[in-house]
Task: structure prediction
Amino acid sequence: MAQQKATNITWHQATVTAQEREQLLNQKGCVIWFTGLSGSGKSTLANAVAQLLHQRQHHTYVLDGDNVRHGLNKNLGFSPEDRAENIRRIGEVAKLFADAGTIAMTAFISPYRADREQARALLADNRFVEVFVECPLDVCEERDTKGLYKKARAGEIKEFTGISAPYEPPLKSEVTLNTAELSLEECAQAVIAFLEETDLVPAGR
Amino acid sequence: MAQQKATNITWHQATVTAQEREQLLNQKGCVIWFTGLSGSGKSTLANAVAQLLHQRQHHTYVLDGDNVRHGLNKNLGFSPEDRAENIRRIGEVAKLFADAGTIAMTAFISPYRADREQARALLADNRFVEVFVECPLDVCEERDTKGLYKKARAGEIKEFTGISAPYEPPLKSEVTLNTAELSLEECAQAVIAFLEETDLVPAGR
Result:
């Protein structure tokens, strides 16, 4: 693409707007918030969606335990206050990514409705896509990808979502996907279809 | 650009890598950390650099008081601990943006060397560019863009950097720019030149 000359710049108070960043990236900045039990497939699904979008030249970023818990939120524990602050910060960071024009995805259990609604409230209408990764507890427990259910059942982990702490399912999620019944590809394509329908990304060719 | 077929996807454990995001954006993810006194021109300079890079189709994002203090860091005050935590979180978020492949810029006084070094330590070598926005105190105070120096002199603001709290200038900043002597365009071009020299962005045409 042609490069503009620096002489076009208005120096003072000049900023690149969110809209200009979106034009550059050919997409709308947004937050796709995956929520569900441990083992439901949130992170796998978020990364699959990221991969499909990347193949279409879209800019994505997945926030998950790997890049958040040991960095930004490393000074938080697992008290109720710290859990709420954990989700609050993730919501704020996701908002910054959306403002940058990026399609930000978050993959955290985020069991409380109030916490998720707080994250939603930071974004403009239709820029927050809540994806309920629905999967029966017994299936998640059978998968037990991280061995956490076993520890929770043995009492080694306290207040474990689904076992000894509540999970509040979304009442009005934009997308609901049962990962015990659908394939990963079907789930990922359903998320992409929603993004296309709401004009967050152009329709695929 | 041609779109790949979804059939190439390896579903399990598949993630988009940082390198793949950089290829998409045709740049290297990095953090440009502007530091200097209040009124030195950090935010104006960061936004001018963002504008020049955007004209070259680069993806940038400026973190500053406007988008951080009222969001992610709204639960922080001005105690020494909170000031340190403020800069720590900004460093962690900037790192996430760099990991996303974005050229992240931060425009905060960040007066303490130790805090800046902590932010630097999060990034790989040459992915952290410290820009010392040097400007004599008397010039900053004369500008007094936000009226803060007047309040600090009147004792209405305590521990104000340069007046009643120290500013520790960088000892090894990648770029040092005296905004009392150079024009904004000269300063912005000097930052761009450094990014080109270190291959963070391709040379301009």
User: Anything to note?
Assistant: Helices of chain A lie at 18-25, 42-55, 65-68, 80-99, 113-121, 137-143, 148-153, 184-197. DSSP finds eight helices and five strands in chain A. Chain A touches chain B through 53 residues (CB under 8 Å).
